[in-house]
Write a structure and sequence with these properties.
The structure holds 2 protein chains of 2 kinds.
Chain A (H helix, E strand, L loop, with lengths): L2 E5 L9 H10 L1 H14 L2 H4 L5 E6 L15 E6 L10 E3 L22 E6 L1 H10 L15 E11 L9 H39 L6 H23 L10 E10 L2 E9 L6 H21 L2 E9 L3 E4 L1 H6 L9 H14 L6 E8 L8 H12 L5 E7 L11 H5 L9 E6 L17
Parallel strand pairs in A: 8-9, 8-11, 11-12, 12-13
Antiparallel strand pairs in A: 2-5, 6-7, 9-10
Chain B lengths: L1 H11 L13 H18 L7 E6 L1 H9 L10 H16 L8 E3 L4 E6 L4 H21 L1 H6 L5 H19 L1 H13 L16 H23 L8 H5 L12 H8 L5 H22 L1 H21 L5 H14 L10 H4 L3 H17 L3 H6 L11 H11 L2 H8 L2 H7 L2 E6 L4 E6 L6 H11 L2 H4 L2 E7 L7 E6 L8 H15 L3 E6 L5 E7 L5 E5 L2
Parallel strand pairs in B: 1-3, 7-8
Antiparallel strand pairs in B: 2-3, 4-5, 6-7, 8-9, 9-10
The chains are: A alpha/beta, B alpha+beta.
Chain lengths: ~425, ~525
């Protein structure tokens, strides 16, 4: 009878994807909530890591109900593997949950598990995370990097500084020079001595009266020998031309480290909502950097009237509060950079979140700090001013005005943010081709 | 003696192995398939649909699993959930992914996973493409209730129709209807009468006709408006429906007053699907038993003919014994598996073979009156069994004392008025018949699922629908699930929905009522 064998492995992969999409859509609000919770409670670096986000969905949203019998009434059932019972034996009822073990007789969707957990893939997670940020499809562009130089060995050269003298090689050169210079003279010497020996032999065996020319010749030879020997002596053991030095060349290396300074105003005017927004903002920058750098350090600086470096926990949840002097934060940042983050080795990014308040006299020192110390060393500086306009109109804040003069700088970008959707545009500057 | 010598000779004869080692190729698949087919048809007389074998990845297998293994299925989030659940399970290693998924269709479609060894591929072919295939084609339940040659086309129609509805009316709307239908799909089948044949081409043609016809029927049904004075007169008229209707979805499809036509079509689709799977739910034991029995015979024959080597057989026995493992009631795997239909089904078919060839005295007494016992033709007997029974009747007819002993079957009575459980039968002479009766009952769908019928519709009143649940063995309905399903039903019917549980004296013990504003009431009458 006819039969066919078909290879279907290449097509229809992810046939379930439309179903999975529908499933995700259905539980969308739950997933969104779960994502928000994860953002709120999770550490920035955790969220963005390759670990999958586990989402737990309460069963009622994806319940597939059906009608079935409850416990009770009269039931009879056959079991296999009788190892001890005879007819008439009485058995006490097992605890709820152990049941009679007849497979999952009840239902998964009735009284069973309360939650249905599944994992979102990273892309799905990002989709939900970015949904309210309204990110367009990003084309990744090259971020600016600093080049650092490294030295690399590049063979030998015949000049250099004494500390780089390679003795072995130099000696080898000298040996070969000496051999080259000596040998002809040595040969000659040998020949002469041979000749002299013959002559003397001749003189010894013959009448001295007739050997005059030979005697003269012997004297000649002696003189030549003296000269030769002197010359041989004069060959230096080591000469300048022997010397060899190890050579090094410079080559450029792109720096793959980045440090991100997160600066936040924690004065009394920053509410929970403000901090939420700020957190999203920091995460976004972190995400972008994550794609480009092998290693990213996070430095958290919180300030009110004084600044303090702290860890992420305290940064978002700390209780200290006070007035606002922004320059204190930048002083601290400057200090940290000098101490720990040499610009030749690190790409420095900074993001600042604030509600705009600043001590009015702080304007000048702040600007000076920014222009002289901070901005020249940063790859990029992003500032968001978080404003809750639900309660009132936007106003011109101190900090905003103070930053006016920085507006033109290429690596500085600022924005007023009224909601999550406003956050992304701050980063547009990052994506210009440099 | 002579046969033993002959057998020894046979095993020492020149072997002609089809392949070596575990790698498979398409060429080898063809070769093995041809040998298996020859053996299945010539030696074991199996009658099958043509075969279509598809090689897939394990991810596609999970996919198939999640949507009832249908190559085309309409889309629904529950399949997405199933996929996630199955994938989770597979990842956690909770289930060996079924190595065989096969569809009741003409041609019969079976799936082979690419990671299988050659032995596994051969095993799946024997099991699915010949075992299951023969069962689908010949068992009376399938002959009676399904159209194997129409299902794929029908599914294509269904998938497209639903997809079009999503575009026109919105995914959420369609989802709501499908959710409601799924919750009632067990009550969307005809259990006692033959349904119409299912043909995609006809469906499309008749759709329009149906629309008009339905409308005219409805107009008739609902045109009567209550007028005071005539009320009492009308009260004496017969109830609608005149007899309780078992196919609730069908009833709603035909009679719901304000349901849009596209929704009716969707109900119809879910009904058809449920009808299609209806025989499968009632023949799980036999189907798997027969397929396992088939693959066992075929694989052994391959070995006897010298076509496969010892390594092949070792791997086969390992797999086969895993599949037919029955954990005892107190084994930690028991809660997940229950009675393993592969194990029991296989054992029963093997037993039929044994009973055909060498019945003992006990067997002859037990099967007194059945003249197939000891007639020596096990192929004919297993074939006859396969064709003419469903699980419940299969157990009732063929379960022997030997099997009961082999499995250590014992019966427990759990009566709520008794504070303890009682062992009411074990594998001894007094117990065999009782064990058989109870086990057969376990496979009786009507026993396990609540008996629900459409009882009454207030045609002249508030248009509410009343379902009746006929209580059996004092078993009540589970409340939460019931309320949820009734709410779904209300969205389709459009008016209040009530459900009454009645005991065998006709007394209503529990009444549910679900209304438009989603209030749901449960009254319990003692």
């Amino acid at each position: 009878m006819a039969h066919i064998i078909i290879d279907r492995r290449l097509n229809g992969k992810g046939k379930s994807t439309p179903n999975r999409q529908k499933f995700l859509r259905r539980v969308k609000s739950r997933v969104k909530q779960a994502v928000q919770d994860a953002v709120r409670s999770g550490k920035i670096s955790d969220i963005v890591s390759d670990k999958k986000e586990k989402v737990n969905i309460p069963i009622k949203d994806i319940n597939e109900p059906f009608i079935y019998h409850d416990d009770g009434g009269k039931k009879e059932k056959v079991f296999p593997g009788n190892d001890r019972f005879i007819q008439g034996d009485r058995i006490s009822r097992p605890e709820d949950g152990e049941g009679d073990g007849g497979g999952r007789e009840g239902s998964v969707d009735g009284d069973g598990e309360d939650e249905f957990g599944f994992s979102l893939s990273r892309e799905e997670f990002m989709e939900f995370f970015f949904e309210d940020l309204e990110l367009p499809d990003m084309i990744k562009k090259k971020l600016a990097t600093i080049d650092d130089f490294k030295m690399r060995r590049a063979g030998f050269s015949s000049d250099g500084s004494p500390s780089r003298l390679d003795i072995l090689r130099s000696m080898r050169q000298s040996v070969s020079r000496r051999v080259a210079l000596r040998n002809p003279k040595k040969k000659q010497l040998k020949a002469l001595e041979l000749e002299k020996a013959e002559l003397l032999h001749y003189i010894a065996n013959n009448d001295p009266a007739v050997c005059q020319s030979q005697k003269d010749r012997v004297v000649e030879i002696d003189n030549e020998i003296i000269v030769l020997k002197r010359k041989l002596h004069a060959i230096p053991f080591v000469d300048d031309i022997d010397l060899r030095y190890r050579q090094w060349t410079k080559y450029p290396v792109p720096v793959t480290q980045a440090v991100m300074f997160c600066i936040m105003d924690v004065s009394g005017s920053m509410s929970e909502w403000h901090k939420e927004m700020a957190k999203r903002f920091f995460m976004l920058l972190y995400l972008f950097l994550n794609k480009n750098y092998e290693k990213i350090d996070l430095v958290f600086i919180r300030h009110h009237s004084t600044a303090k470096e702290c860890d992420e926990e305290e940064f978002f949840h700390g209780r200290e509060t006070g007035g606002t002097v922004v320059s204190s934060a930048f002083d601290l940042m400057d200090q940290i950079i000098t101490e720990r983050y040499n610009t030749s080795a690190w790409n420095i990014y900074a993001c600042q979140a604030s509600d705009g308040d600043n001590y009015s006299d702080d304007g000048e020192p702040l600007l000076e700090l920014m222009k002289e110390k901070i901005l020249p060393r940063c790859q990029y500086f992003a500032y968001i001013e978080i404003e809750d306009i639900r309660n009132g109109n936007a106003r011109e804040t101190d900090l905003w005005t103070q930053y006016d003069s920085l507006e033109h700088l290429k690596n500085f970008n600022r924005r007023q943010v009224h909601g999550a959707a406003d956050i992304y545009p701050v980063f547009r500057g990052l994506f210009e081709k440099k | 003696m002579a046969t033993k010598q002959a057998k020894k000779k046979a095993s020492k004869k020149a072997t002609n192995y089809l392949s070596n080692g575990s790698e498979w190729t398409y060429q080898l698949l063809e070769t093995y398939f041809n040998e298996i087919e020859r053996i299945a048809k010539d030696k074991f007389k199996l009658d099958t649909y043509p075969n279509q074998i598809e090689v897939i990845t394990s991810e596609q297998m999970v996919d198939a699993y999640s949507s009832h293994a249908m190559p085309l299925m309409y889309q629904h989030w529950s399949f997405g959930k199933s996929f996630v659940g199955t994938m989770n399970n597979y990842r956690r290693g909770n289930m060996g992914l079924a190595y065989e998924v096969v569809i009741n269709s003409d041609p019969c479609i079976a799936y082979l996973m690419e990671e299988n060894t050659m032995m596994m591929q051969a095993l799946v072919m024997a099991h699915a493409s010949f075992g299951h295939n023969a069962f689908f084609k010949n068992n009376y339940m399938f002959r009676q209730w399904t159209d194997a040659d129409a299902i794929i086309d029908y599914l294509a129609f269904a998938k497209k129709y639903i997809s079009d509805c999503e575009e026109r009316y919105g995914a959420d709307e369609v989802e709501q209807v499908l959710d409601a239908c799924h919750s009632l799909q067990n009550y969307g089948v005809d259990r006692y009468k033959r349904p119409d044949t299912m043909s995609a081409a006809e469906e499309e043609m008749r759709q329009k006709e149906r629309e008009e016809y339905t409308q005219s029927q409805l107009n008739d049904l609902w045109r009567t408006i209550p007028v005071s004075g005539k009320m009492e007169e009308m009260a004496n008229e017969t109830r609608f429906p005149t007899e309780p209707q078992e196919n609730v979805l069908y009833f709603v499809e035909k009679n719901a007053p304000h349901l849009e036509n596209w929704k009716r079509e969707i109900i119809r689709i879910v009904r058809k699907m449920s009808q299609y799977f209806y025989p499968q739910r009632q023949t799980k034991l036999m189907n798997e038993g027969f397929a396992t029995f088939t693959h066992y015979n075929i694989m052994n024959e391959l070995y006897d003919e010298g076509l496969v080597d010892d390594g092949f057989m070792l791997e086969f026995f390992d797999s086969h014994s895993g599949v037919t493992f029955q954990p005892g009631y107190n084994h930690r795997a028991y809660p997940y598996m229950g009675i393993n239909v592969y194990a029991l089904g296989f054992a029963m078919f093997q037993d039929i073979k044994r009973l055909s060839m060498e019945p003992t005295k006990e067997d002859k007494e037990w099967f007194n009156g059945q003249d197939w016992v000891g007639n020596g033709d096990w192929i004919k007997n297993t074939d006859w069994a396969m064709r003419n029974f469903k699980d419940e009747s299969f157990v009732q007819q063929f379960l022997s004392p030997k099997i009961i002993r082999d499995f250590g079957f014992f019966a427990i009575l759990d009566d709520e008025i008794d504070e303890e459980l009682e062992v009411c039968a074990i594998h001894d002479n007094q117990g065999y018949k009782e064990v058989r009766r109870i086990l057969a009952n376990q496979f009786n769908m009507n026993q396990n699922e609540p008996n629900l019928q459409v009882y009454n519709v207030e045609v002249r009143g508030d248009r509410s629908m009343t379902l009746r649940h006929y209580i059996h063995n004092g078993r009540a309905l589970e409340e939460r699930g019931t309320k949820a399903v009734l709410r779904h039903l209300e969205t389709l019917w459009g008016f209040d929905v009530k459900l009454e549980s009645v005991d065998d004296t006709g007394k209503v013990t529990v009444r549910y009522q679900v209304g438009k504003d989603s209030r749901s009431l449960v009254d319990i009458f003692v």
